[in-house]
From TrEMBL:
Domain (NAD-dependent epimerase/dehydratase): residue spans on this chain: 6-229
Higher taxonomy: Bacteria, Bacillati, Actinomycetota, Actinomycetes, Micrococcales
UniProt xrefs under Pfam families: Epimerase (PF01370)
Family: Belongs to the NAD(P)-dependent epimerase/dehydratase family.
Signal peptide residues on this chain, from the entry's feature table: none
Organism of provenance: Agrococcus pavilionensis RW1
UniProt protein name: NAD-dependent epimerase/dehydratase domain-containing protein
Length: 298
């Protein structure tokens, strides 16, 4: 049994990580912005503004740091906020833990596969970095902070998940946005979309959650950076077709909407490091992930 502190515990990924950790017998301190949210599986729920500081916690074995501004699109409108807040949360956590009781807990922080440069082949952890959004810049800053605090003596681990989908994902992401627009679409009307030609690597959020928990459970880790990815890229058109099929409707006519200033044409991840070291592999196929997202919508 581990004692885990999970930040952003009431968010899309956080709720799945808390539930899985509890299912595997761990005790969970859930950190949320307000402390008012119900987080199924958590033993304790604490409110904390992590941009202002790190709260006093009971003894813990590991921190899974998921709290962040995470939607890519809005980061173009608020670049300074994304960079400042995402960096501040990681820095406050690591600085406090560095100065706290020993042994310090392992810190597992969510970065993103969006910080890699585009490549025609699956991207592993050694690939060059390139930034197509302020969100990606903010996450690269978190990466750098974790590397710095690792040199200071903390056991830090950076996780770079590629796109993930499933139940509970909020607006600002392709799958929930397409589902919401299809639900609201008038018969015969065109569906407004962004760039559906872009290809991305999608993993079920439950499989992403498993990666975080496995990294917390491992007594020793061989590396300090791990990708989480399915190893297959799908275009936005494929995603839309899968959603329409699951909803039992035809793909509607499309009307092009706003596009991002920079949009990498194809991204696919290589998670062989995580697979080989911890035995992780995706358990949920793409169709079931889409069906779960549709079924869970309000």
């Amino acid at each position: 049994m581990l004692r885990l502190a999970i930040t952003g515990a009431d968010g899309f990924v956080g709720r799945h990580v808390v539930a899985l950790a509890a299912e595997r017998g761990h005790r969970v301190v859930a950190l949320t912005r307000s402390g008012d949210a119900s987080v199924p599986g958590a033993d304790v729920v604490l409110g904390a503004d992590l941009t202002a500081g790190w709260p006093a916690l009971p003894a813990i074995d590991a921190v899974v740091h998921l709290a962040a501004l995470a939607a890519v699109g809005p980061s173009f409108d608020e670049p300074a906020r994304y960079i400042a807040e995402n960096a501040a949360m990681a820095a406050h956590a690591c600085e406090s833990l560095l100065r706290g009781p020993r042994p310090a807990p392992r810190v597992i922080a969510a970065s993103t596969g969006a910080i890699y440069a585009a490549a025609p082949h699956p991207i592993d952890e050694s690939a060059p970095l390139e930034f197509a959004s302020p969100y990606a810049v903010s996450k690269a800053t978190v990466d750098s902070l974790l590397s710095y605090y690792r040199r200071r003596g903390l056991d830090t681990v950076v996780v770079r998940p590629f796109n993930h989908i499933g139940a509970g994902q909020g607006p600002g992401f392709l799958v929930p946005d397409l589902i919401a627009r299809l639900d609201a679409l008038e018969p015969g009307a065109p569906l407004q979309v962004g760039n559906l030609d872009a290809e991305r690597d999608y993993t079920d959020v439950r499989d992403v959650a498993l990666a975080y928990v496995l990294l917390a459970e491992a007594p020793v880790l061989e590396h300090d950076v791990y990708n989480v990815a399915s190893g297959r890229a799908r275009s936005g058109h494929e995603v839309l077709a899968a959603i329409c099929a699951a909803m039992g409707r035809e793909v509607p006519r499309l009307r092009a909407g706003r596009r991002r200033p920079l949009d990498v044409p194809r991204v696919v991840g290589d998670a062989r490091r995580l697979r080989g070291e911890l035995g992780w592999s995706p358990r949920f196929d793409f169709a079931s992930s889409i069906a779960t997202a549709i079924d869970a919508r309000v």
